[in-house]
Please model this.
Amino acid sequence: MLTENPLADCILETKRLSKEFKGFAAVTDLNLQVQRGHIHALIGPNGAGKTTVFNLLTKFLTPTTGTIHFNGIDITREEPAEIALRGVIRSFQISAVFPGLTPLENVRVALQRATNTSYQFWKSDRCLKQLDDRAMALLESVGLAELSGAITGELAYGRKRALEIATTLALEPKLMLLDEPTQGMGAEDVDRITALVKQASAGRTILMVEHNLKVVETLADRITVLQRGAILAEGSYAEVSQDPQVMEAYMGSAHA
Model:
């Protein structure tokens, strides 16, 4: 639940964050605060600037102006690898797993970061067995233990997204950025991934872009609504869903 002061104990804060592309303002003066331990949803009509914000936070794009602070540290000029090492871990709109590996091998690759065998693919399988118990525990947590030896590329789409959550958790994120985790899914998979995101949020902070407003209503402690790269409204789902400006922005569309 929200505390009385939504800005208390911010894990992530942006101040007047902006991004222009040849004169086009994709994001304008974004002042975003994400409170530690919350699920914070970033929503808005198509073209509102949501993915651009994610790219700015993870430094796939360089801000034109403004600052980004994570855990009180200015990370505005850091590189993507430095951001990841701080514990800001992102998933993408499309599944980002190795299709030719098994789910067990995918999670094990992610776990290697915390060992002396980090990303050394030439290491013998025997050297990496020490990671199997932890990998299997993560697969169990997302309902994939029985498919640990399958070929990832042959898994159903929803299962691949569940695997991506497991590999993200393997990186021990302090802040998980989930970019449309239920995109393109049927109702059953949406419900499964929603439950997994809720489970993954225990002891963590999540910032998510999500089109499915039912998912947002179910998961989000706080919501920021973007329109044309600027904040249109903020608050709980009950608050933003009744905001006249938000209702107008969504008029004629059932999705964000």
